[in-house]
Amino acid sequence: MEYYGTISMGNPRQNFSVIFDTGSSNTWLPSVNCPKSNSACQNHRKYNSSRSSSYIPDGRNFTLRYGSGRVVGYLSKDTMHVAGAELPSLTFGESLFLQHFAFSSVKFDGLVGLGLGVLSWSNTTPFLELLCTKRLVEKCVFSVYIRRDPREIVFGGFDETKFEGKLHYVPVSQWRTWSLEIAKTTVASKQIGGRSNAILDTGTSLVLVPQQTYHNLLNTLSARQQNGYFVVTCRSGSLPNINILIGDTVFPLTPSNYLMEIILDRKPVCVLAIAPINRGFWVLGDIFLRLYYTVFDATEKRIGLAKAK
């Protein structure tokens, strides 16, 4: 499932649906110049620089690689309009190629990166940094709520009506990314993972964990293999929580959160909404972020978490 919002680019405004992605810093939109042979691009709204009086050419080529596919194009500058704010001369990518299997059927047109600036293209000021340096927000903070409608991103602060109790803040563990440190992970009384960094990524649907942690989890949940899937019982009441210790607070994933029902051999079975990656860190995607209201504080280089209402 994707969570996306609306922005406009240029003057007069051209409207687009975008994913706000905390896992990257760059912004891109499909270009009117993309070839007709690229159906993934043709299926979406396209930016037309010739229709904007505020367009500034850049021309540098770019390639971006995501877990789901590749985006190729060239850089341009224009004024972005978002949530009542205007960001003049934002550098963004006009995409000429969108990988078909990744982007053909999605509802969003492009992507706005909310990552820290060190991940951006060289000699550019990415969205979040430009928003803050122009002082268009009181604080260089944004917060994400995706538990239920109306889902929202708040720029400049957070909404206390969307979470329970107080925010638990931890420092950003790697200055290049919106990441924090997991002290350990347990299932029932068994530790399945030790100290590890975790990236909070609104652009990823699942929770991704290191290979060894994943295998430990499968063993603890008595998962069995069926048609290439690791299947577990659908009786969620008989399964334990996955307890993630961040700072001095445990943030549990309950079975109703980490199970997905699919059809195998014409019968419903349950698999994990958790997948392995060949890396030494976690990626906490929407499965986690739906449960926990998240505040991204670029000024203090910290992340706040609280149980979402």
UniProtKB/TrEMBL annotation:
Domain Peptidase A1: from-to ranges: 3-306
Cross-referenced SUPFAM superfamilies: Acid proteases (SSF50630)
Any GO BP: proteolysis
The keyword Protease belongs to this UniProt entry's keyword annotation: yes
Keyword list, A-Z: Aspartyl protease, Disulfide bond, Hydrolase, Protease
PROSITE patterns (UniProt xref): ASP_PROTEASE, PEPTIDASE_A1
GO cellular component: lysosome
Disulfide bond positions: 34-41
Catalytic residues (positions): 21, 201
GO molecular function: aspartic-type endopeptidase activity
Domain of life: Eukaryota
UniProt keyword Cell cycle present: no
Family: Belongs to the peptidase A1 family.
PANTHER family: BETA-SITE APP-CLEAVING ENZYME, ISOFORM A-RELATED (PTHR47966:SF51)
Entry protein name: GG22191
Organism: Drosophila erecta (Fruit fly)
